[in-house]
Automatic annotation (TrEMBL):
Transmembrane residue ranges: 12-33, 176-198
MF annotations from Gene Ontology: ATP binding; phosphorelay sensor kinase activity
Taxonomic placement: Bacteria, Pseudomonadati, Pseudomonadota, Betaproteobacteria, Burkholderiales
This protein's name: histidine kinase
A GO CC term attached to the entry: plasma membrane
Superkingdom of the organism of origin: Bacteria
UniProt feature coiled coil, ranges: none
Organism: Paraburkholderia bryophila
């Protein structure tokens, strides 16, 4: 029996690895934060036992006579901290006694000492505070960035703790808020990155499906991603192959029927030459011509010749200007408004036929065609406007169906076999675009064509 240490490539394993990677990433980021965050990540002054040691020193100094207080204070040992005692009748004690107690930290430490059974006034200040200049034993040149805590003793004297380096962090509430914010941002960043890679195969599958929707004859979808997704893609490819085979068989059958109709139509025309009644002969020939036109249109449509054309980059605005100029040379009112040039990747001959179909419809049923082209970095918007009667709202979508004709204004006598809009929509959708019809205010029809711009 063969064992493999490689985990199975399934969606469940990918989710587990994604969640695990996100957790490991957050932990690593937390370690980096704690290493480089400085005082933000250090324990608060209450958690470092500095206050307890300072309280012991205060009680010890307070218990000895005045002549021993400074030696006892100087002999006290707290890392990176020196202790000095100032008598009650000294100028320094007078300044500290009258200093304002407005700091929130002052109030918190005062309450802490009171809660531990030794109420006293406590002041906190830094080297950039004016109080530091009133301490005769503080050397600013040696320790320019120092922290001070002054505690008042029961006899009016003061004990000043001078820390040359901050060995404690922010208050606990501030630390919790910062830590929660950092963890939330870390989880969000790790989740976004992990989810991006987890959903990458699904996005690729969706892109392939859109490509298939634009061109049903496109090749099979790439089988990539986790096992379940590969199985779904394989099933879709099998279904796609069956549908393509079904459509190709039906298309070949209809194309063959349209082609084979030419022979009996030719025979009918030859036999019609022997009809002596001129009126009946002309009617017969007219019906044969209609049938021949329908067969030719159907054959051209079923062949889908536009899909055999190679895509290339061409000037879409120039193509529309050329169409307008060609019709104008024939004396037909076709006008173009838009940019002089705009590059587009597609099948130029197919687009020319599709746009010509739209212009022909506008001229036949609206007596005038106005082409308006607007382009942006992401989308192309083309309007074909006529000034005819429009079409009923219920038929705005039906007219795209093969061989569909409106009986009143758009019937066989005015031309067309009902395949112009069908063919135009097929060409436009094959390029990832869409087409829709709208009746204009005041009369006329507006054809809206949207296409993705070339990236």
């Amino acid at each position: 029996m063969k064992f493999s240490l490689r985990p199975p490539d399934t969606i469940g394993w990918r989710i587990a690895l994604t969640v695990g990677s996100a957790i490991v990433g957050v932990l690593l980021l937390s370690v980096v934060f704690n290493h480089f965050a400085g005082v933000w990540a250090r324990p608060s002054v209450e958690e470092t036992a500095l206050l307890g040691r300072a309280n012991d020193i205060i009680l010890m100094v307070e218990a000895v006579p005045d002549s021993y207080r400074q030696p006892v204070a100087s002999a006290s040992r707290i890392p990176t901290t020196s202790v000095d005692w100032y008598p009650a009748n000294s100028p320094t004690a007078a300044v500290l006694a009258t200093a304002p107690r407005t700091s929130h930290a002052d109030a918190e430490l005062t309450q802490w000492f009171a809660a531990n059974g030794h109420p006293r006034t406590v002041l906190l200040f830094r080297s950039d505070d004016g109080l530091s200049g009133r301490l005769p034993r503080y050397d600013r040149t040696r320790d320019p960035h120092a922290y001070f805590m002054a505690a008042g003793l029961s006899d009016g004297s003061w004990l000043v703790f001078t820390a040359t380096r901050r060995a404690w962090g922010l208050p606990r509430p501030a630390q919790i808020a910062i830590a929660l914010g950092f963890v939330a941002l870390s989880i969000l960043a790790a989740s976004v990155v992990a989810t991006y890679y987890l959903s990458k195969p699904l996005r690729r599958f969706a892109d392939d499906l859109r490509r298939f929707g634009g061109d049903p004859r496109s090749g099979p979808v790439r089988e990539a991603g986790p096992r379940e997704l590969r199985a779904a893609i394989a099933a879709f490819n099998a279904l796609q192959a069956q549908l393509r085979k079904f459509v190709e068989d039906r298309t070949a059958m209809l194309a063959a029927m349209s082609h084979d109709l030419r022979t009996p139509l030719t025979k009918i025309r030859l036999r019609g030459e022997f009809i002596e009644d001129d009126d009946q002969r002309e009617r017969l020939f007219r019906d044969v011509d209609d049938l021949q036109a329908m067969a030719d249109s159907a054959l051209s449509f079923f062949r889908d010749d536009y899909k055999d054309e190679e895509a290339t980059v061409f000037d879409f605005a120039g193509l529309l200007r050329t169409i307008a100029d060609d019709y104008s040379d024939q004396g037909k009112p076709v006008f173009y408004a838009g940019p002089e040039r705009f590059a587009f990747s597609g099948r130029p001959f197919s687009f020319r036929r599709a746009c010509a179909n739209l212009v022909d419809n506008a001229l036949k049923y609206g007596n005038r065609a106005e082409l308006e082209l607007k382009c942006s970095a992401t989308q192309i918007h083309l309007k074909v406007i006529d000034h005819g009667p429009g079409i009923p709202s219920y038929a705005l979508e039906k007219v795209f169906a093969p061989f569909y004709r409106l009986e009143q204004s758009r019937n066989r006598s005015t031309g067309g076999m009902g395949l112009g809009l069908t063919s135009a929509r097929a060409v436009i959708q094959a390029h990832g675009g869409d087409i829709s019809l709208n009746n204009r205010q005041g009369g006329g029809l507006e054809v809206n064509v949207t296409l993705p711009a070339m990236s």
